[in-house]
Amino acid sequence: MAASKKALVAALGLIAGLAHADTTLLNVSYDVTRELYKDIDAAFVADYKKKSGETVSIRQSHGASSAQALSVTQGLQADVVTMNQPNDIDLLAERGQLVPVNWRTRLPDNSAPYTTTMVFLVRQGNPKNIKDWSDLARPGVQVVIANPKTSGNGRYTYLAAWGYKKQQGATDAQAQDFEKVIFKNVPVLDTGGRGATTTFTQRGIGDVLVTFENEVALIDTGVGAKDFDAVYPSMSLLAEPPVTVVDKVVDKRGTRKEAQAYLDYLYSPAAQEIIAQHHLRPRNAEVFAKHASEFKPLKTFTVEQIFGSWQKAQQTHFADGGTFDQVVVDKR
Questions:
Q1: Alpha-carbon distance 282 to 314, whole Å?
Q2: What is the pLDDT of residue 12?
Q3: Residue 332 domain-assigned?
Q4: Using CA atoms in the order 223, 228, 234, 238, what is the torsion angle rounded to 10 degrees?
Q5: Domain check: are 202 and 320 in the same one?
């Protein structure tokens, strides 16, 4: 009898232990947020432990944004996704109904806890005198851009160049011709933004890299800063990288509470401070004001202003047979 009681107590203890086992979340993100989320994760884990007494661990997956989204639709068990443009999350709603179509409304600021924009990185001293988008179309200028078919980074760049031309009064045909000239100057199309950075900074290819402001700032203030200069064009596209819980996954895994807490934490003053330290523009007005001197004022326009919506931009420019395919047809 005593042995049976001991066995029962042991079994109950095992069940209790399993019930309180550590929760692990997978955040599937785009490829230039590795450093950001390394710091966010550590801060969140400590904060969640302090508030709830529970231990959560975070695993990260990084790559070209659109490729990452496709991996989730194909079965990668992401509890949350933190992408760089809305189309990649819309894909999760359209293929497999992994998230609801109204996912944008579930968190503040269209579920985008920070903003950034597209700027230039050039060789030290700017030997090609690159100042604006029009300079990317000059003969003899090599431009490094991530592939818009696989990378949100590249997509933002393409749309920023198109929008720049439209803001100058160009027709769509003229904007497309402008893109053709720029992409003739592109020696290689890397699948993601970090790959493009490596091509420019480590492989020594190109005269100018077009990428997110935070990626440029990371390089411009890093170990190799003396070799590069940041250049801000006259205007650029506002990037609002969105986040969401992946409903089908968290409900299957029982991790909704922790996943939601993780995304809510991104809007906290502590996380917004980390975001600012990684050269991303925080949504929190007080945190932004504290770091305002670090962010150069820049005229920006939105996808909605120039293209109507992200869905229209995707269909017109990046779907098979769209304008981007027409722009690069000569490169194939």
A1: 26
A2: 46
A3: no
A4: -40
A5: yes
How far is it, in rounded angstroms, from Cα 316 to Cα 18?
A: 50
Do 314 and 187 lie in one domain? The reply is: yes
Question: Do the Cβ atoms of 300 and 286 come closer than 8 Å?
Answer: no
| Per-residue confidence (pLDDT) for residue 21, from 0 to 100 | 54
**In terms of DSSP bridges, do strands 243-245 and 114-123 run parallel, antiparallel, or are they unpaired?**
unpaired
Gap between the Cα atoms of 106 and 110, Å rounded:
8
Could you read off the pLDDT of 77-117 as tens digits, one per residue? 999 999 999 999 999 999 989 999 999 999 999 999 999 99
Helix (H) or strand (E) holding 298: none
Asked whether residue 216 falls in the same domain as residue 310, the answer is yes
* CATH code assigned at 86: 3.40.190.10
| Structural domain range at position 32 | 2-113+241-294
R_g of the chain, CA atoms, integer Å? 22
Q: Which of 87, 215, 63 is nearest to 78 (CA)?
A: 63
Total of domains in the chain: 2
pLDDT at 59 over 50: yes
At 138-163, the pLDDT tens digits run: 999 999 999 999 899 999 999 999 99
- Domain identity same for 46 and 146: no
- Amino acid sitting at position 227: D
Alpha helices in 62-171 (DSSP H): 65-73, 86-94, 108-111, 152-167
Q: Which of 50, 47, 30, 49 shows the shortest CA–CA distance to 39?
A: 47
How would you classify the pairing of strands 281-282 and 208-212?
Answer: unpaired
Tokens of 211: 């990428």
